[in-house]
Design a protein that fits this description.
Homodimer. Pathway: Amino-acid biosynthesis; L-lysine biosynthesis via DAP pathway; DL-2,6-diaminopimelate from LL-2,6-diaminopimelate: step 1/1. Its main location: cytoplasm. By secondary structure, the chain is α+β, with helices and mostly antiparallel strands. It starts with a strand and ends with a strand. Strand 14 and strand 15 form a beta hairpin. It folds into 2 domains: 128 residues, Roll (Diaminopimelate Epimerase, Chain A, domain 1), CATH 3.10.310.10; 132 residues, Diaminopimelate Epimerase, Chain A, domain 1 (Roll). The relative contact order is 0.18. It has a 20-stranded mixed beta sheet that branches. The longest helix has 13 residues. Bound molecules: ligand LBFN2T5F. Ligand LBFN2T5F binds next to helix 2 and helix 4.
């Protein structure tokens, strides 16, 4: 059988988008891994599945799979790609859309400049399993194979650890990323590991070693977590632009229970079909 897909990206974080409002899609582990495989399949960081809404007040259900086939609850860059797809394909012309993932409800807004702004919801502070270093700033410290690591931890519907570093280009992103991900006592569902270099109160640089797909060129939920941790630690003001290897994202967070707002690009790269033996 043939499966139609659209290849998209948001700041270089790339996606295979499946429109399950128009074709039947059964996300088996083999098929997901083939879609994610850059050599034997299509290749992407995440597979995004757009489905008809399963609840009132929601425009679309939105399922997210990492390239390794694991299903997750959040993908910020993918949310902007979803909005772009919906508008390009005429699935909706509403300027604001509400989408539901396994763990989060998000509101998306199409801006006049072609960018998409996403209300990502309020950060939730995690993890509870380890003692805080500084309780008032949600700062943690654990011992790993790479020595003692200090980090902030936030859930944006998926788990993130954020480490402040002097120079993102000089960090062993994969090594430290993997060693934190291996600490299942602290992160039972593993974790996306962000490395944040603060430039000034409104600018930073960020690299993210993602769960299920390794280092990506950008991570939207990781950028939200980094902006929130940076603000909580007194390093950032309420507006910050983060430069990732694939582009820039703008983040706003007023603090406490306010949602993190993320603005950035999303592009369609090509469409295709993949042969698939069920
Ligand atoms: N790239 C994404 C995050 C995708 C999911 C993540 N790898 C996880 O396992 O939680 C983003 O833009 O947010």
């Amino acid at each position: 059988m043939k499966l139609s897909f659209t290849k998209m990206h948001g700041a270089g974080n790339d996606f295979v988008v499946i429109d399950a409002t128009r074709e039947r899609f059964r996300p088996t582990p083999d098929l997901l891994r083939r879609l994610g495989d850059r050599r034997f399949g299509v290749g992407c960081d995440q597979i995004l599945v757009i489905e008809a809404p399963s609840a009132p007040g929601i425009d679309f259900d939105y399922r997210i799979f990492n390239a390794d086939g694991s299903e997750v609850g959040q993908c910020g860059n993918g949310t902007r790609a979803l909005a772009r797809y919906v508008y390009e394909q005429g699935l909706s012309d509403k300027p604001r859309l509400r989408v539901q993932t396994a763990t989060a409800t998000m509101e998306l807004q199409r801006l006049d400049n072609g960018l998409v702004k996403v209300d990502m919801g309020a950060p939730r502070w995690q993890p509870a399993q380890i003692p805080l270093l500084l309780p008032q700033a949600e700062r943690y410290r654990i011992d790993t194979a790479d020595g003692a690591l200090e980090f902030g931890a936030a859930s944006m519907g998926n788990p993130h650890a954020v480490l402040c570093v002097a120079d993102v280009d000089a960090v062993d992103v994969e090594g430290i990323g993997r060693s934190l991900q291996a600490r299942r006592d602290v992160f039972p569902q593993s974790v996306n590991v962000g490395f944040l270099q603060v430039i000034d109160r409104e600018h930073g640089r960020l690299r993210v070693y993602e769960r299920g797909s390794g280092e990506t060129l950008a991570c939207g939920s990781g950028a939200c977590a980094a902006a929130a941790v940076g603000r909580l630690w007194g390093l950032f003001g309420p507006h910050v632009t983060l430069s990732l290897r694939g582009g820039e994202l703008n983040l706003e967070w007023a603090g406490a229970d306010a949602p993190v707002l993320m603005t950035g690009p999303a592009e369609t790269v090509f469409t295709g079909e993949i042969e698939w033996q069920r």
